[in-house]
Design the sequence.
């Protein structure tokens, strides 16, 4: 029997070399997380006394969805409160999400994508063991996770944190990453396409986030999570309670879980053919439907699946945010001043929460716009646009078809999420007037989202590979909207966010001028893109 | 003579699609074995089973005396493979891709790679993302030809190459045979197989429908005759062995079965033959008969 791991070493070196830039950026960005947060916090909240009110607010059960089970935030001694406690109980959650995503993409990219493109076939036809590509990928993931975990622990220690607790955070972070490397190993076995495997793994990550949040919220102010929380791997990391209990055994669950998933993945992988999925692709229709006859309808056909899932996901997220509305409103009544600060000086908890929901949805829809437009860019870079443009379809019409589909879909998403949020808000006191108000608030985000769309189009019209630059204002904007007030960012810095220019409704009044200005900017960007696309080369495949 | 590849009743289905239906293929050592069939006939599926990349539902395959899956690593040290659709790592240069594939095999021969890059006129310093299909194919071909493998499995290896490169490819394959290697050459480009192969297996709908030397197949086949006559010949299309008779601008074109050529020719001579062109049967015609039958079924 041939050794299934033959040539794992050379493959690992090859994979690591190819991935050095992408993975380097991931690890680097995650490394900066702790120093950045610690520096910012030590500047803004210089003394434990400054920090205590923040901890008190963050301890509110209604916020646990966005933080964690609450270790270290309750019954605190304001004299000894440390910044790293806030990191462990609040911001660590976001680091874990990013580490999870890093692993989902890493594993998907080096296993299923290689098979999907056929490059794995060239490799496997060489004297390379059956499991060597998977093994080398998982070893690379292990190295990346240990690096992230080690750098996190190291920077916490460098900022004067307790060494044991810091190592615990590092260990759990690496374990969480490995677990999602394992999850992706399993999900990548089902379909022949890397987007299927990474999509499923991403859905597991999102579900784990929601389950942990719901479980912890159900615990109330006296407990730290419920049995529901423990269904989620997020709890296995956060329940280690660094700086409070320093429990190691929940972290062991992460490593055990990783081992189980990797084991299942290996068994499934050894039972299927190279390049195929466990699920056979469905057959489709033999002829195109009558409506599929223009650049616009072709764009819709290409974007349909992705867009539909986004709409469903956003509706579910809207239901989730909405169902928290009563808890939020009650919980925050006790802490109106602090909450007002978080919401940018808003009167009233309900308006504040609805505003937060609407803002989050605007950011999420903008994320959809960039992802959807990256699909358009791949249409061109992968050579699928070429045969379309070789017919009598003009480049601007091709671009406009996709722009209309994505633009209309994003407006629909804002409408749906605004309606859901408004209905839940109206249920609280029977104030149904909130429903149209919230819908209008959500729709007021249209120009902001369209600016992102216009930017993606304009970048595409320069070169399809530049579309990724559109992530910068979206991610920066999202962070500014969520953390901007806490970070006390100067006003000019906040202007980077496309979401900063339209009023935060319903808390703030609608004003027409910024709405029109942003709409004009979006239109100008789109017009430039439509003009420019026909004047540049369509790169060959 | 030793058998290098032998499959017995190889069957493989993908969902409801039957890709291979009891396929029996035998390739002897030292042959260039042409593996001919149209798209979707099962050529690539067969090759992927021989390489141990996929497993058959039933039937068995033996390659170089070993089991394609159990002995994969040992076998792959002795096999070089060129896929029909070559995808490379976009951020690597062609030269890097050749080296990586050579090193994974463990027998990269630098001077041989240099020579092959020269012969195939490949710019090794370009990133693979800028390569055309033909250049990607050259990379995989060079990586394979530079190896000291005993068996070369080439899946439509020159479908992206121009005729000049095709000629160089043919020289290289002859050199492989001269040093005692065996080649399985899958193709639907018939002239290529005709130029290189000494044995041919024809695959249709997942089964081998014909196998033998080119000469063995030829005697069964028809010759195409084009002729110009002084006088018309009556009832020529009713003559035994004549098929597909057409008359365009005083020029007759017909296909004639091997055993009736003498009789047909004497009738043409009687009618005042002024010019005649006779083509030997090409594999094209052979295949057309097979697939023609398949499509009219």
Sequence:
């Amino acid at each position: 029997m041939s050794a299934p791991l033959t040539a794992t070493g050379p493959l690992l070196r090859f994979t690591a070399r190819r991935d050095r830039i992408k993975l380097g950026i991931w690890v680097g960005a995650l490394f900066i997380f702790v120093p950045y947060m610690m520096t910012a916090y030590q500047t803004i909240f210089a003394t434990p006394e400054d920090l205590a009110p923040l901890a008190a607010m963050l301890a509110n059960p209604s916020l646990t969805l966005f933080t964690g089970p609450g270790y270290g935030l309750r019954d605190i001694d304001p004299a000894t409160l440390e910044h790293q406690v806030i990191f462990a109980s609040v911001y660590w959650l976001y680091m874990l999400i990013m580490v999870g995503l890093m692993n989902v993409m890493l594993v998907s990219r080096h296993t299923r994508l290689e098979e999907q493109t056929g490059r794995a076939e060239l490799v496997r036809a060489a004297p390379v063991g059956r499991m060597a590509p998977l093994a080398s990928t998982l070893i690379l993931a292990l190295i990346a996770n240990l690096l992230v975990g080690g750098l996190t622990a190291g920077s916490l220690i460098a900022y004067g944190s307790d060494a044991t607790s810091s190592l615990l955070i590092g260990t759990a972070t690496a374990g969480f990453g490995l677990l999602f490397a394992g999850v992706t190993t399993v999900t990548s076995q089902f379909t022949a396409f890397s987007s299927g495997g990474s999509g499923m793994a991403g859905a597991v990550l999102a579900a784990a986030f929601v389950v942990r949040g719901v479980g912890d919220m159900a615990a109330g102010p006296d407990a730290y999570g419920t049995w529901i929380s423990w269904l989620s791997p997020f709890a296995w990391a956060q329940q280690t309670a660094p700086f409070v209990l320093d429990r190691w055994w929940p972290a062991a669950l992460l490593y055990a879980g990783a081992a189980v998933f990797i084991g299942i993945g290996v068994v499934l992988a050894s039972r299927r053919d190279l390049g195929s999925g466990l699920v056979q692709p469905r057959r489709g229709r033999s002829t195109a439907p009558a409506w599929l006859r223009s650049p616009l309808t072709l764009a819709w056909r290409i974007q349909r699946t992705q867009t539909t899932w986004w709409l469903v996901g956003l509706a579910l997220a809207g239901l989730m945010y909405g169902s928290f509305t009563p808890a939020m409103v009650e919980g925050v009544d006790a802490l109106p001043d602090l909450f007002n600060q978080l919401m940018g000086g808003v009167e009233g908890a309900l308006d504040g929460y609805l505003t937060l929901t609407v803002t989050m949805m605007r950011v999420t829809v903008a994320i959809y716009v960039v992802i959807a437009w990256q699909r358009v860019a791949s249409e061109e870079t992968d050579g699928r646009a070429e045969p379309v443009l070789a017919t009598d379809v003009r480049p601007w019409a091709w671009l406009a078809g996709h722009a209309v589909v994505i633009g209309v879909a994003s407006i629909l998403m804002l409408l749906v999420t605004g309606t859901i949020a408004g209905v839940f808000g109206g249920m609280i006191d029977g104030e149904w007037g909130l429903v149209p108000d919230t819908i209008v608030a959500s729709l007021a985000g249209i120009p902001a989202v369209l600016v992102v769309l216009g930017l993606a189009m304009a970048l595409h019209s320069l070169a399809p590979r530049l579309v990724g630059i559109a992530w910068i204002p979206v991610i920066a904007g999202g962070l500014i909207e969520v953390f901007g007030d806490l970070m006390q960012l100067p006003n000019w810095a906040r202007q980077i966010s496309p979401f900063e220019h339209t009023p935060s409704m319903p808390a703030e009044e609608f004003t027409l001028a910024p709405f029109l200005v942003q709409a004009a900017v979006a239109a100008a960007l789109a017009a430039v893109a439509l003009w420019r696309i026909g004047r540049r080369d369509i790169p060959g495949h | 003579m030793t058998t290098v590849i032998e499959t017995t009743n190889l069957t493989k289905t993908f969902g409801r699609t039957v890709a291979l239906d009891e396929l029996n293929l035998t390739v002897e050592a030292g042959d260039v074995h042409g593996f001919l069939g149209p798209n979707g006939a099962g050529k690539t599926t067969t090759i992927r089973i021989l390489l141990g990349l996929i497993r058959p539902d039933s039937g068995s395959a033996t390659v170089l005396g070993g089991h394609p899956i159990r002995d994969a690593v040992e076998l792959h040290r002795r096999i070089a493979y060129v896929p029909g659709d070559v995808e490379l790592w976009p951020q690597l240069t062609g030269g890097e891709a050749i080296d990586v594939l050579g090193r994974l095999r463990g027998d990269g021969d630098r001077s041989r790679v240099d020579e092959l890059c020269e012969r195939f006129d490949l710019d090794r310093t370009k990133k693979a993302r800028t390569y055309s299909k033909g250049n990607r194919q050259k990379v995989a071909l060079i990586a394979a030809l530079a190896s000291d493998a005993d068996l070369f499995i080439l899946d439509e290896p020159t479908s992206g190459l121009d005729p000049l490169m095709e000629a160089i490819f043919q020289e290289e394959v002859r050199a492989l045979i001269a040093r005692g290697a065996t080649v399985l050459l899958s193709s639907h480009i018939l002239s290529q197989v005709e130029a290189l192969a000494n044995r041919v297996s024809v695959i249709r709908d997942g089964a081998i429908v014909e196998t033998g030397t080119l000469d063995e197949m030829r005697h069964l086949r028809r010759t195409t005759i084009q002729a110009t006559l002084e006088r018309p010949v009556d009832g020529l299309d009713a003559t035994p062995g004549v098929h597909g008779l057409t008359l365009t601008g005083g020029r007759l074109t017909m296909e004639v079965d091997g055993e009736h050529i003498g009789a047909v020719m004497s009738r043409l001579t009687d009618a005042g033959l002024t010019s005649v062109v006779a083509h030997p049967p090409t594999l094209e015609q052979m295949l057309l008969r097979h697939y023609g039958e398949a499509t009219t079924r």
Observations:
- Residues 163-178 of chain B form the longest helix (16 residues).
- Chain B touches chain A through 33 residues (CB under 8 Å).
